[in-house]
């Protein structure tokens, strides 16, 4: 009896410690659910969410519609395109082949793709991984297939920049990575990724290049319910469920497929505030401490934020782009840490765009401040992005002077942001005002020393 009493006492004490933790997790789950449910009611989130903390599931849900018709609700078994996050499979494929001694990162592209022009002799595989190849981007308006894109590259006479010197994030780097993987492995990219990456990571429902008839494939759509075509001109797009992407994240974090050295190569970017093959993150020795990557494709958007030290992962997948996934992550991270959090809102830019009409010059700033004051409860005007997006919209319409007024005002609101000065410099550059362009690019570089574009344009403007 005495032994039984001691055991009961131990069990009782254990419950005293377990129950508060369980209640804490439940309250956090309730808070996250409140954020997601309200966001859905506001029309600013339609998609799937997974939150892990201390390696336990805190929250998971599917909310909204699987396509523009509104007749099919999302489930957690639905797959999503993940935009640039899918580029992780290209980068990981290259590194896996390098681990096996089947290629070197310093091999030139021409070694594997000899039908390309002579510029392929100057590009190393590492340049493709770092987005420093000097290649132009894919001609999205005319390219419909891989063959179209290869034909364009075969007709390319010169690179934009010297390989290895200037960062330029574009899809031709990824396209050639995939072509090299096929050449070296002797398999299609789809087969290679499926057999060598997805299945070893446990991703049994992920699929490369889904079609319109693929079951449980969500379809992306705009705010006015126009559905996008599912296929993308350049092949190699991997669609995943929440669980698939979590399994991939864990495979990367725990070096299930790639060695720590290989992981490090594609985790750290060419320069600060730039993208690497795995997006970005950090390692301490041979231990992964952070992995962050976001992606956009048509109206699909995805975000993966992993903190292996805390056993914490946040995954957000949406098929109705609102450009607010980082806002959701911030709110979720604060809830998990017991800190105050802010409810994500609608993008202020969208409200601006709907009300611009014939406003010009200073009238645009008046409109911005009026809408900000009147609709601050529903729309987000807090960051630099609202006016920055407005400025680029105006430039796209050829309204350079109006864009300059908007960008100038943004620099007064965010004087410590290298990005807003870069935008203003670009507007002056397009106007032909080289003196003011130089001043603003220099200021941008002071605030963001890793701005390679600013360095390149400053060198151009100061050349004799």
UniProtKB/TrEMBL annotation:
Keywords: Hydrolase, Repeat, Signal, TPR repeat
Per-repeat ranges for TPR: 418-451
Annotated InterPro entries: AmpC-like (IPR050491), Beta-lactam-related (IPR001466), Beta-lactam/transpept-like (IPR012338), TPR-like_helical_dom_sf (IPR011990), TPR_2 (IPR013105), TPR_rpt (IPR019734)
SMART domains from the UniProt entry: TPR
Pfam families per record: Beta-lactamase, TPR_2
Name of the protein described by the UniProt record: Serine hydrolase
One GO MF term attached to the UniProt entry: hydrolase activity
UniProt organism field: Chitinophaga agri
Signal peptide: 1-24
PROSITE patterns the record matches: TPR, TPR_REGION
Top-level taxon: Bacteria
Domain Beta-lactamase-related: 48-327
């Amino acid at each position: 009896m005495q032994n039984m009493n001691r055991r009961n006492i131990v069990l009782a004490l254990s419950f005293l410690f377990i129950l508060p933790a369980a209640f804490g997790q439940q309250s956090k789950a309730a808070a996250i659910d409140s954020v997601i449910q309200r966001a859905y009611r506001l029309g600013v989130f339609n998609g799937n969410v997974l939150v892990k903390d201390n390696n336990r599931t805190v929250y998971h849900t599917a909310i909204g519609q699987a396509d523009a018709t509104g007749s099919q609700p999302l489930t957690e078994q639905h797959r999503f395109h993940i935009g640039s996050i899918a580029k992780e499979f290209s980068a990981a494929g290259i590194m896996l082949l390098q681990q096996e001694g089947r290629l070197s990162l310093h091999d030139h592209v021409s070694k594997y793709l000899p039908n390309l022009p002579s510029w392929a002799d100057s590009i190393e595989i590492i340049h493709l991984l770092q987005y420093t190849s000097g290649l132009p981007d894919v001609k999205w308006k005319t390219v419909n297939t891989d063959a179209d894109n290869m034909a364009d590259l075969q007709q390319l006479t010169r690179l934009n920049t010297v390989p290895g010197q200037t960062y330029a994030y574009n899809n031709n780097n990824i396209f050639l990575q995939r072509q090299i993987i096929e050449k070296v492995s002797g398999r299609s990219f789809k087969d290679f990724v499926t057999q060598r990456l997805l299945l070893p990571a446990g991703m049994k429902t992920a699929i490369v290049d889904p079609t319109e008839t693929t079951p449980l494939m969500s379809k992306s759509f705009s705010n006015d319910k126009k559905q996008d075509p599912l296929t993308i001109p350049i092949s190699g797009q991997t669609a995943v469920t929440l669980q698939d992407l979590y399994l991939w994240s864990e495979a990367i974090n725990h070096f299930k497929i790639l060695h720590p050295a290989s992981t490090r190569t594609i985790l750290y970017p060419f320069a600060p505030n730039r993208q690497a093959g795995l997006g970005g993150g950090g390692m301490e020795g041979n231990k992964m401490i952070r992995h962050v990557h976001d992606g956009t494709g048509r109206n699909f958007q995805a975000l993966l934020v992993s903190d292996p030290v805390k056993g914490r992962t946040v995954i957000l997948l949406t098929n109705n782009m609102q450009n607010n996934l980082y806002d959701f992550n911030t709110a979720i991270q604060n809830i998990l840490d017991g800190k105050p959090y802010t409810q994500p809102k609608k993008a202020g830019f969208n409200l601006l765009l709907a009300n611009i009409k014939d406003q010009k010059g200073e009238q645009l700033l008046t409109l911005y401040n009026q809408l900000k004051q009147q609709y601050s409860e529903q729309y987000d005007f807090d960051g630099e992005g609202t006016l920055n997006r407005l400025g680029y919209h105006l430039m796209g319409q050829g309204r350079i002077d109006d864009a300059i007024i908007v960008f100038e005002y943004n620099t007064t609101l965010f004087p410590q942001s290298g990005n807003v000065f870069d935008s203003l410099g670009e507007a002056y550059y397009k106007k032909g005002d080289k003196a003011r362009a130089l001043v603003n690019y220099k200021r941008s570089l002071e605030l963001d020393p890793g701005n390679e574009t600013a360095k390149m344009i400053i060198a151009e403007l100061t050349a004799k």
